[in-house]
Prior knowledge:
856 residues; mainly beta; six-stranded mixed sheet; flat
Amino acid sequence: xxxxxxxxxxxxxxxxxxxxxxxxxxxxxxxxxxxxxxxxxxxxxxxxxxxxxxxxxxxxxxxxxxxxxxxxxxxxxxxxxxxxxxxxxxxxxxxxxxxxxxxxxxxxxxxxxxxxxxxxxxxxxxxxxxxxxxxxxxxxxxxxxxxxxxxxxxxxxxxxxxxxxxxxxxxxxxxxxxxxxxxxxxxxxxxxxxxxxxxxxxxxxxxxxxxxxxxxxxxxxxxxxxxxxxxxxxxxxxxxxxxxxxxxxxxxxxxxxxxxxxxxxxxxxxxxxxxxxxxxxxxxxxxxxxxxxxxxxxxxxxxxxxxxxxxxxxxxxxxxxxxxxxxxxxxxxxxxxxxxxxxxxxxxxxxxxxxxxxxxxxxxxxxxxxxxxxxxxxxxxxxxxxxxxxxxxxxxxxxxxxxxxxxxxxxxxxxxxxxxxxxxxxxxxxxxxxxxxxxxxxxxxxxxxxxxxxxxxxxxxxxxxxxxxxxxxxxxxxxxxxxxxxxxxxxxxxxxxxxxxxxxxxxxxxxxxxxxxxxxxxxxxxxxxxxxxxxxxxxxxxxxxxxxxxxxxxxxxxxxxxxxxxxxxxxxxxxxxxxxxxxxxxxxxxxxxxxxxxxxxxxxxxxxxxxxxxxxxxxxxxxxxxxxxxxxxxxxxxxxxxxxxxxxxxxxxxxxxxxxxxxxxxxxxxxxxxxxxxxxxxxxxxxxxxxxxxxxxxxxxxxxxxxxxxxxxxxxxxxxxxxxxxxxxxxxxxxxxxxxxxxxxxxxxxxxxxxxxxxxxxxxxxxxxxxxxxxxxxxxxxxxxxxxxxxxxxxxxxxxxxxxxxxxxxxxxxxxxxxxxxxxxxxxxxxxxxxxxxxxxxxxxxxxxxxxxxxx
Length: 856
């Protein structure tokens, strides 16, 4: 559905056989009087891409499809609808045609999908046409109870007597599971009995069934039905039996008994009725005995039993005491048996003063603690701290003198190791590896070099493990911040690849760390050792390209990217976002070509170049959008052409130029598709719905225009006029240019006298570039007009046909589809070049979306 225009549709379809034909049928609909008009009412709501209602008069095309998506329309028509302020409208589908909706679209029993396409919009999602109850009944109009009329034909007279067989005849079944319509059988036999429902016992014989109908009663296996339905015999109902009471009648009763089910659902049982689980009798009540500890019960209604507060007493309990026995080891005093609800004390065994209760391995006994001597103090010895003369004392190592191997130590003096040292690894025994560092973690083995002075920093050298970004087995040098610099003073020989990484906020490789480049290729990044001059540099000091990038070949700048983002090719001073200046007059400054579609792919070619100008300030009523393409011919003895456009060659040639005016906020077009300053010449014809002149209004040129339509005709007609005054004898000669007869033929004349009542005639027709006028009075001013038909060589070779059949591909399309209630996609341009118009629609939507997004 994607990023798109939407159409909310409330489908109100009804076959309008319940409406009068004169009320709904258009005047052009041709059908027999009293026939059901093949029309359908439809109501919906029109909205645009922003879900705003489309109001007023607009053209809408309605299409019927077989499927929900894809495929060609089975039927379509365009109508002009009037939507209210909420976009709501209603139409009668089929009213645009004299024959209405084609009825054969609905006889196959298949679903039909209706699509709606407002003018200027894309086709909206289709909706499924739904049946109405009368239309469903109409689908059964050709049957009686679902069977064809032939199933109810009387047996042939003189046929054999009815048979008593009750065998079930075989029935043909269609693929849909319904009885198929049997072919007409002229050899049907059998007879029936009055009031019996007949049945087929073979493909050609009818006998009595067991169903008998008398008056309004139907009997099964009985000819005397005592009710609407009387079944004589056992009956099996294999699913739910639902009874519907009639007023207060009992929906169920057993004849000869009082058992019944009332219309309210109340059941009346017969005397002596018992229920499962009651044994020999029925429980008639529940009581509570004295001393049971229970309350509640009763003889009617819903009963409940409960234990009241303090309802259970010790005498009611089988065991009302708890006995706490002493352990064999002693140590506790216990009360023995304890009655529930009483209060008892449990305590420790009592000992003498200064004694403690002590477990000797067998029992808890009273014991006196003591020793043979008394420590009066503890003094700290060499390299120890702590001690004391009372209480609990502690001795510690003096860690300023004795290092602890299991903890971190700080050595403040100068230390020297005369042998090899191993940290985390065994020291080497050779004389050239005095220090060995080792580790086994996947985070690698690190050596930290730190300097704590002002501006100092910490660097780490690591042998990377699998958990390092450097990769297991690689050597890393990092300060973990990416803000400091590694200096290599002297030449560095890198015999393999150099990979440089960094962060989003720090440079990854600085080719001119001192910022000395003043516009040349060095300092910078050079390629190769041959001195051919290919490189990338950045001017760091002065000039228009300062802080930009320059790309060199042969030590010459070929492309520059300014710090502002402007790009220049062939120039270091671009005046646009992208400026291209050719360095030779033997080739164009820029060549653009898109890729051809693959042979046999059925795909259309892509655009060679798409250009979008920026939008003006949407909040300002006086701003303008930028120009999409501005082209200027070069100067010289003969100026260059500003633009040349040629359509592509093919079975159907492409347009040389397509101009489409921009739409207004309301969706209309109020600007010209083309605007020319200067004369315009075309070697071929110029087609138009109207030829209009437009000038500044003579009376109010600053504020108004004045427009006139040109006079047109079915021929290549020319028109000449003027005034002339006859002489004293009523004669006058009108002189014409010497080329007049060479250009024109088939002359027509019009004379009007001015200032008096007089008669004027053409005395002699045009010959030798003149014609004569005569009036019945002297000195009469005459206004004359002469028309002709062009007969020059071009006109004779390109005579304009008055009526033309549209080519097959343009039939169903219009020069102005909106005037005929058709959609924009039914314009001639869509028939002539549909791919171009599709791309235009897509690009126009992109431009509109861009303009909309720029407002936010």
